[in-house]
Amino acid sequence: xVVLKANGLKKRYGNFEALKGxxxxxxxxxxxxxxxxxxxxxxxxxxxxxxxxxPTDGKVEYFGRDFGEFKEVKNDIGYLPExxxxxxxxxxxxxxxxxxxxxxxxxxxxxxxxxxxLKIPANKPLGEFSKGMKRKVAIARTLxxxxxxxxxxxxxxxxxxxxxxxxxxxxxxxxxxxxAILFSAHNMYYVESVCDKVLIxxxxxxxxxxxxxxxxxxxxxxxxxxxxxxxxxFVTDDIKELNEFIQGLTASGxxxxxxxxxxxxxxxxxxxxxx
Length: 275
Ligand SMILES: Nc1ncnc2c1ncn2[C@@H]1O[C@H](COP(=O)(O)OP(=O)(O)OP(=O)(O)O)[C@@H](O)[C@H]1O
Hints:
Helix content is about 35%, strand content about 30%. It is built from 10 helices and 13 strands. Adenosine-5'-triphosphate binds near residues 18 and 41. Keywords: ATP-binding, Hydrolase, Nucleotide-binding, Transport. It is an enzyme of class 3 (hydrolase).
């Protein structure tokens, strides 16, 4: 079931066009990764989706309903901003209880469940938590009202690999429970390992939107060669380019050391697209 649909989103800040007409959909039980270099427009999309700013043009629908009724769907969304400040003198239990009361969540077992799932100590002040632990508390906060849609702005940003992996695996578990997740990231590995679909942005435009498998379906060819006494590598996904390179190399007296094909990684495709 499509839970979120964005159609032709545009955003202008003064004369600057930060988004130039971006469209995508998100189904329940699906993870969509938003990638793009700094300033590509990821946070702008996320802020539009979470009602913090309005698009200059275009439409967002939740559960087939118009964005105009955003207040009604607010309880169905869990939002993790890129940076958020927690109440540092509260402990995790107090903090989550506070948000549970804001959302009108009566069943306190939800808090225990989240603390357990995210391995968060209940009684330690948040001010004494590491950056990764704070991020987990913020993630727990997004889940307190058991929303269907999760919108996370760089959930793994600035975290060490093992915490990032924990969060990536946690998102996978949420997906299994039928949650629809949209998240932005810089680290391609986490996008590649958890996403079903990706939206690659550059300067406010979608360079690619679709299933991640299709994007990586291609092969790349790697040539290790020796020329003028030094060894180097040539990589391409284009067979014509490969042939031209080999012809040029042999014509100039170079020698192929090894040649093989590799499956594409998201990182290769991404850099080929954005450059
Ligand atoms: N309030 C604003 N006023 C003017 N320009 C803005 C505003 N917010 C964002 N921009 C510009 O819009 C563009 C997109 O910004 P956005 O924050 O969406 O990028 P991003 O992809 O999230 O980048 P990052 O990875 O650095 O977080 C950038 O060029 C940014 O400078």
